[in-house]
Prior knowledge:
heterodimer, A: 137 residues, Thiol Ester Dehydrase, Chain A, 3 helices, B: 138 residues, alpha+beta, 18% helix, globular
Amino acid sequence: MRHVAVGDVIPELVIPxxxxxxxxxxxxxxxxPNTIHWDAEDCRRLGLGDRPVNQGPxxxxxxxxxxxxxxxxPASVRRLKVRFLGNVFAGDRLVASGEVTxxxxxxxxxxxxCDVLLRRDGGEPVLRxxxxxxxxx
Amino acid sequence: MTGRRLPGGFFxxxxxxxxLTSDVLCAPRPSDxxxxxxxxxxxxxxxxxxxxxxxxxxxxxxxxxxxMFGECDMEVFEPLRVGVRYxxxxxxxxxxxxxxxxxxxxxxxTFRLEVMTPDGAVAGACTNSFVFPRGAGA
Lengths: 137, 138
């Protein structure tokens, strides 16, 4: 049985550079009409700077990846509750991190609660929340 | 507006969606039929019966007015799988007018979506809150 305790630190996950091209793919998949995800000219016009803004759920996805890497795959992630604190721009370097806050026995698995954070290089948080993952008992 | 049911509909979790979404999210390439957990959100939004543009319009807003994703609570009761057609149902659960330091008056609109398997079990739920700036004249 895997040993997990309150205070355990989840290994960080780094996104070296957020891709503007991937934002375009996601905009097409979601039929998302918001131009800030692909049109740098529009970002300038709206006063958002000169780089496209990443979709918020993409930022959640990086945190989910960190949880999957640590807990053991897609079936391990059971809950993610986040607040979006700031925009992420194309080219940003991001670091996802987390810490265990509670461990309990579920019906047939260990339920682990965590605080999670996504921050831009330099430390500014862009997303903060709580997650729940399960580990084999 | 609170309590208003959304049209609902279906979301086909196809292989190409999972592959491309995993690629966008910088996740490992899928190796089986388990979908990336973020599909709890993508399936919910994709099957709610409104496009994102229509969802903005329902809130009397549009993409050009700068709506923002405020909060998301994603609960996965059973992993979503590629090849499954999920049914989605949802409703608006809360509408609040607020004042922000940087954006001024805004409406915070919350809606909950449930993603159901073909046999009617709730596989996941998403509670999303969007921020709709209303400008100085609101």
